[in-house]
Fold these 3 entries.
Entry 1:
Amino acid sequence: MELKTLDIFCEIIDNYGDIGVVYRTAKELQKIFPKSKIRVFLNRLDEFKKINSQVLDLPSQNIDGIEYITFDYLRDNANELLTAQVIIEAFGCQIPEEYMEIAYDNSELLINLEYLSAEDWIEDFHLQSSPLGRGKLKKVFFMPGFTEKSGGVIADSNYLERIQRVLENKEFYEKKYLSDIEDRENKIVGTLFSYEKNFTPLLEDLKKLDKDVVILAMGEKTQDSLRKILKNFSIEDFRNSLKYGKIEIRFLNFLNQEEYEELINIVDFNFVRGEDSFIRAVLTGKPYMWHIYCQEEYAHMDKIEGFLDKYRRVIENFSDEDFLLNMEKFFKDYNFRKENSLELGKESYLYFFENLAKIEKYNTIFRDFLIQKCNLINKLKDFIEKH
């Protein structure tokens, strides 16, 4: 049976990752199912407006062939809007009751698209169904992950094509984003995007390198963290950029989704946070560090351990044990926190920055594995077509 209609629901809480994932998933599904009517329902628009300049303060609007509708508008017009054949509930959000009352008897498949996880248990849970207790609607859990038996990661063609375009026109994009960095080829340049964190160890270790470093700091939490700790350092400037010895830190304005994706593919490393920017960084193949959101009782460290286990499985036949042990230690030390705060950590950055070429070599192997074997978009397409 041909897929005629598909609805995606997203409840944005306090970050850009949720809408980032949903936005690119909707665009990709539109390419895969060009004859289908696709709608995205959002609880609010503020974050969406940040990552897409086309978004207006309208309760219902069409952007590039996809209709974006607010929850409030849906609640007031549920009987006119009706429901879709297939519904994607992103990250366990609460679909408005007015919609669900109609969907139980009129829709066919509800896919609960969960958050990315690297823990082993998700393989058993992936594609498991859950009874809804009424109507003909069936609910299935779709579990993103880093293995072939999981739901995979979002390696959408839009982004992969953008990566190729940037690589083929690197000079143009370096001029677009990095043209005012003097002697660029002899400097290490990278992005820094984090939750609250004490970056004193980073600054101290970068001082020990034999190259100058330019850090492009993005996001309020990153920039506020740097400003708080830099009060204790002797700096030359403190507006949109500053100089601390051989380290230059630039405070960037907010970039939309496409600009961010272009930038992280022309720098030398990316420190990222959350799920969406992490997968974007992984798919560059460049050196990266993941700042995961802290959870109670250090539950976030289980996810770090899970990711490192999957990474090791893919590259251990190509790499050496010393490399794996050093990178595993760095990931764990960087993220071992009781809460997101300016608590001083014990991580050392030297191995990372002294081995960028080696890290990129192995990260590229891992990237290629994910694209070929763990592409969430392909898995989602196959599942929808089958069911």
Entry 2:
Amino acid sequence: MTRDLFGRHRAVLPDWLALYYEDPLEITHGEGRHVWDAAGNKYLDFFGGILTTMTAHALPEVTKAVSEQAGRIIHSSTLYLNRPMVELAERVAQLSGIPDARVFFTTSGTEANDTALLLATAHRRSNSILAMRNSYHGRSFSAVGITGNRGWSPTSLSPLQTLYVHGGVRTRGPYAHLDDREFIDACVDDLVDLLGHTRAPAALIAEPVQGVGGFTSPPDGLYAAFREVLRERGILWIADEVQTGWGRTGEHFWGWQAHGRSGPPDIVTFAKGIGNGMSIGGVIARAEIMNCLDANSISTFGGTQVTMAAGLANLTYLLEHDLQGNARRVGGLLIERLRAVAAQVPHVTEVRGRGLMIGVELARPGTDEAAPEAASTVLEEARAGGLLIGKGGGHSTSVLRIAPPMSLTVAEAEEGAAILERALRSI
């Protein structure tokens, strides 16, 4: 049945629509931190639909909220008052750390970043954007235009002029040999020099932890130092929190808070985990920025009643059960366990991460060369052992991406680490 579905998939869907595994997997249902395929095989899920199943599969509180709301009304558009949308916006604004915050809901992280770029360029009257090397911000025309990862950038055409900045990758590039303080200073000097050669850009957009790029991040404080330079010139700071938001990194509720010395970003984008699988994205910005558009705008599907009900229930569950604290505790144990394994596997060059956002970088032994074939081998072996993980990387890297639902237990973390250890030793 799965092979027949694969054939039908290939016949009607684009060739560039990537599928994991030599024998692609059809997931039919899930519960907690586990999913099942069409053949009845059970897997521990350490990728959560690309960091989207944030709390748990089939979380009763979320499914109940969706079912009850669907029984009343599913959708009406933003042309009408929407109580669940207002209630979720109030909570998100309060949690954002941005003064006088306004919230606009979209259907995805890509659309959220599109909206942030629209706001920044309109507010600043500039179509120039600063972005980080190795970054990823979505698959739309404008988002691809600012993506600094060649593997996810199919065209050089763009409505924006993009200038790429050093700093998103700590362990590679011209400043990798420096200590953290020197690294930050060098990146700031590079930014200042760059700004001396161009008209003032509208904004810098940056992921506090680069997601598709392999869960890599700069030293804490880099974006705070950038912020001081940007503020002097009126340039906005957009924090792309599509993958890092809602406490996944454990240490902070938002990834930008590791760089919060100079205050919050002007704009924050979010998506993925807040809906626990429902299509929710959004933008948070100061009122003067959010309200700068001088033409009509609506959203047909952003903020529908059923997705907002899911978001409210999911966020309530996350806060009441301190899943940020759980990500910090269980994620810390998982990182240390994987580092102990990595010390015995020549292909592993680094285990990095924060909370339940962990990257395992692979290279050909004795070199810094990417080992994509090794990453594929581990992905297949982990699946055979009953574990689903992701992969990514850029800048000539191969990285295994690990991001389970944030309700992961210590026992499940140990189980997953044991399966991954066997998969890594099979390279």
Entry 3:
Amino acid sequence: MFNRLKMTVAALALTAGTAFAAQDSITIGMVLEPPNLDPTAGAAAAIDEVVYANVFEGLTRFGPDGSVNPALAESWDISDDGLTYTFHLHDGVKFHDGTDMNADDVVFSLNRARAEDSTNAQKALFAGIESVTAVDPLTVEVKLSAPNGSFPFNMAWGDAVIVGEESIADEATNPVGTGPFKFANWVQGDRVELVRNDAYWGDAPALATATFKFISDPNAAFAAMMAGDVDAFPNFPAPETLEQFKSDPRFKVIIGSTEGETILSTNNKSGALADVRVREAIAHAINRQEIIDGAMFGYGTPIGTHFAPHNPAYVDLTGLSAYDPELSRKLLAEAGQEGLKLRLMLPPPTYARRGGEIIASQLRAVGIETEISNLEWAQWIEQVFKGKDFDLTIVSHTEPADINIYARPDYYFQYDSPEFRALMDQLNLATNPAKRAAIQGAAEMLIAKDYVNGYLFQLAKTGVANAKIQGLWENSPTQANDLTGVSWTD
């Protein structure tokens, strides 16, 4: 009897221990698989969704409320003329390969990002840097060619993380950062696995392991959550099922905002689309609410320009492109474009595939036919983003406060406006919040009146998680699944 009791107690202890151990691991669902894992050499948001703040860190970082906070730099000083930033680095920081992270790595990272042959997707973030100097191992001096009040903000982007020269050659497939988690494994087509970095310089995360599971199909995502194969899906692709999750005590639904301006991106140099009348006709053919209801089941905020509605500098310009199919037909006739046919390239996200079908129907109603091509993410990057071989596409720009992309004539939608570039130059020089807001408002108005793109809606953050998980971001001020504050409750 006594032996049986001991065996029972031992079995219970083993079961309890196993259950307890399971609570320091998490499986996160993601719609898209990243094409690589180097955020300094790729444009895909899915890269940052895995590695931002988890594997890689920058001088500064975004907090869950969108604030810019210290990261590898514990503090920084700005010269009176605004041209020199002196960053003071944390002591004792090591890369995951055991090498020290010091001022030389910051010099290497920033010079690499701004080099002539740089493949950084946000190279413009570094354009104003004149020089980067290691004053001593823990001090870096960055000189700018002109004052830039956004510089600490720029350094918080995933594209500005600090990397080591020793590991950079393999960063895309074997990322080595300074973050609280280390890369462990990548089963392509299925998952990426991270493990806790026990040598982390900062506060240790509660989680010991994290798996990012890639599930693009909405039905499969729903099934994975219901079965417990996935613990959380921060950007859940099946909003039509959220009510079911809300009524199930095993789960919690997390609704927030993102920086994701979802747009009908338009190639401004492709045939008839070079005519502003055609672009305006497309804008007036779009019924935003019908797209939000049909593709996102009501989750989304209409926008009329490339700016987040929750930003204090946002200007509501939806009236400039209000749904007006009669005006669309009139503008197309004036442009001599009856019978226009355009290529609509759709990447995998639900908002794009479902939204694309609705927009195709809306355009058909005013006389514009579309040839739809469903592309995988890698195809979209190569053909649309890099190759500019498209007429229309739908994508959500999730980078924070990224209206400055319209100042880049070689950007994939190929908008070329000296007036807009002049506004961005003024914005970079401005430090007064009211003045910056006025300049941003003028920039919002300019691209809205030029009908550069079809502005659809601000992407809502519709997440689902196990009810025992705490610390997931409600909003997405940047494209990240930051696990540094995530834990399980009892």
